Amino acid sequence: MTGYAAHAREFPQGTVAIELRSVNSRFLDLQFRIAEELRAIEPQLREQLGGTVSRGKVDVRVTYSAALGTQADATLDAVVLARLAKLSTQVRAAIPDAQPLRVSEVLHWPGVFGEDASAQVALREAALALAREAVADLGATRAREGAKLADMIRERVERMRARLRELEPAVPAAIAAYQEKVAARLREVLAGGEEERIRQEIALFGVKIDVAEELSRLATHLDEVERVLERGGAVGKRLDFLMQELNREANTLGSKSVSREVSAAAVELKLAIEQMREQVQNLE
Q1: pLDDT in tens, 217-258
Q2: Which of 41-45, 78-82, 199-203 has the lowest mean pLDDT?
Q3: Torsions phi, psi of 256, nearest 5?
Q4: How far apart are CA 49 and CA 42, in angstroms?
Q5: First CA to last CA distance, the chain
Q6: Which helix (DSSP H) or strand (DSSP E) does residue 7 occupy?
Q7: 11 pairs with which residues across the strands?
Q8: Averaged confidence pLDDT in the chain
Q9: How far apart are CA 191 and CA 189, in angstroms?
Q10: Residues 6+ apart with CB under 8 A from 57
Q11: pLDDT > 70: what percent of the chain?
Q12: What is the DSSP string of 191-213?
């Protein structure tokens, strides 16, 4: 399902902003763009999202802007710089084509200013708390969309039920009329053939064109669709399977049709099923 949430807050160390965007996807796909200062919170953030979202592509953007003056009197950590320079030399010795570190990259390297460890921990904890709010907001947005989609699917289910109720009493009469027409043609072809044999052939043909079983299975699948929606939770995959089963029965109904009314009903049912299937792809 689609969803969006954006939260930002100022802390003593600076401002943290979190933006979450989700779009439809068959599986869970998390994409992160996180400021280096907060890169350590990615595992916890991934866990938070995994507990709320089970299906969809989610883009996560976490930015951090240091407060003015926080680094005005900061001094570079000579030990970290020396270690970084040594690592850079080793990398370039192993990979001659590697580009040297830029000053801006060095200044953004974790720990290069000798930050207070407790302040960094506090910043990460504050960012995670803000992330929990954003994730909850995203979940609420997706839930509202899911409720609207569920209402739409229920409306299609009720429309299909009404069509089945109209169709059910008309089917026996349509079959009887078609059997009589076939019987008349057989009598003409056989020209005085055995009447008992004609009745047997007609009865056998009647069994083949009887759609009572298809109507019953369609009703059963519609019951299951409503039950799944009522249960809630992650319902997308289950509903997708039910759409396949509904479509199968509607196809069989159309192939066994012996009247215009049954054929028209089969087309209407398939249209409603396709409309539901398109929306089911958006459900988690």
Answers
A1: 899 999 999 999 888 777 888 898 999 999 999 988 887 777
A2: 199-203
A3: -95, 5
A4: 10
A5: 6
A6: strand 3-11
A7: 14
A8: 82
A9: 5
A10: 22, 23, 24, 25, 29, 31
A11: 79
A12: TS--HHHHHHHHHHHHHHH--HH
Name residues whose C-beta falls within 8 Å of residue 263's C-beta, 6 or more positions apart in sequence: 254, 257
Residue 98 vs residues 80, 91, 107: alpha-carbon distances, Å: 21, 7, 19
pTM of the model: 0.62
Determine contact, residues 78/51, Cβ cutoff 8 Å.
no
DSSP type of residue 264: H
SS (H, E, C) 25-91: CCCEEEEEEECHHHHHHHHHHHHHHHHHCCCEEEEEEEEEEECCCCCCCCCCCHHHHHHHHHHHHHH
Residue 245 to residue 240: CA distance in whole angstroms: 9
DSSP secondary structure of 148-171: HHHHHHHHHHHHHHHHHHHHTTHH
Give the span between the Cα atoms of 269 and 128, in whole angstroms: 48
Beta partners for residue 19, in sequence order: 6, 61
| Domain definitions of the chain by residue range | 3-73+108-142, 78-107, 151-280
Contacts of 64 (CB under 8 A, 6+ apart): 14, 15, 16, 17, 35, 37, 38, 127
Apex CA 58: angle with CA 56 and CA 64, to 5°? 170
- The one-letter amino acid code at 71 reads Q
Sole residue written with tokens 């003056």: 69
Closest Cα to residue 215, out of 259, 174, 163?
163
Bridge partners (DSSP) of residue 25 are none
Amino acid, res. 198: I
Whether residue 189 has pLDDT greater than 60: no
